[in-house]
Model the fold of this input.
Amino acid sequence: MEEQNRIVVTVGHKAKPEHFVLAREMAEKLGAPFAERGNISLAAIRERYGVPFVMIAKERLVVDTQDGELYFHPGMAHLRLKNLRRGESDHLLRAIDIAEGARVLDCTLGMGADAIVESYGAGATGEIVALEKSPVVAALIAHGLRTSEGERPSTVAAMRRVHIVCADYLDFLRAQPDKSFDAVYFDPMFRHPFTESAGIHPLRLLADPRPVSAEAIQEAKRVACRRVVLKESSKSEEFARLGFTEFEGGKYSNVRYGVMRAR
Ligand SMILES: C[S@@+](CC[C@H](N)C(=O)[O-])C[C@H]1O[C@@H](n2cnc3c(N)ncnc32)[C@H](O)[C@@H]1O
Done:
């Protein structure tokens, strides 16, 4: 089902004029209906429109799902940036071998934490393009990255520099010239067993769950000048299936980064 048929946009209970503006903007962007809220509960809105998701414009943009709320939060990136400022290294940045001014194609934006860390690592002259298949997730995270405040100026600057494109990574990769990015990165949903997830992570209800194809890796190798990186659980057979033989990551960590060097 197309996502615009699965979501309705409304405003929070104490909506200010700017929330109405944002809600209408989001409804238009997503091709979704805008629901007049009044005193109606979210459950009633969901029922009236027959959709599983309600996007609410309030102090921050939230998507209400049966498994909880989905919203942008720089929390996960926060700790990693704190460690980087202390001079510690980050496994992802080592895997993509980040340098000042790097051009990184992050094929799987998700909640945006990795993209913020990449952006911080590549600095003001870097270029981070982050792709997301789900229009709702792309719109939610793009809004968060564009407007979120209250962090250190260097974190805010890193968030603002991430350029989000709502696209399928295979389509996007096919359209890129050879060697147009330094690194191409994939962090797919596939490794997470669907049964384990249901009540835990509302992203899973919206995310594209397909595994990375061999063709996507081939295209990524063509587009990357230096590295193609895949994040997976440490024991994943995806690394072998897709031809990754070199790894980065903590010895005892349950995730690893598979690294392919471009020739
Ligand atoms: C595990 S999450 C990525 C998490 C992210 N690295 C972060 O730091 O928050 C995977 C995301 O990739 C998206 N995705 C999966 N397949 C995709 C595709 N073919 N094209 C674009 N995005 C895709 C999913 O919708 C999901 O939001």
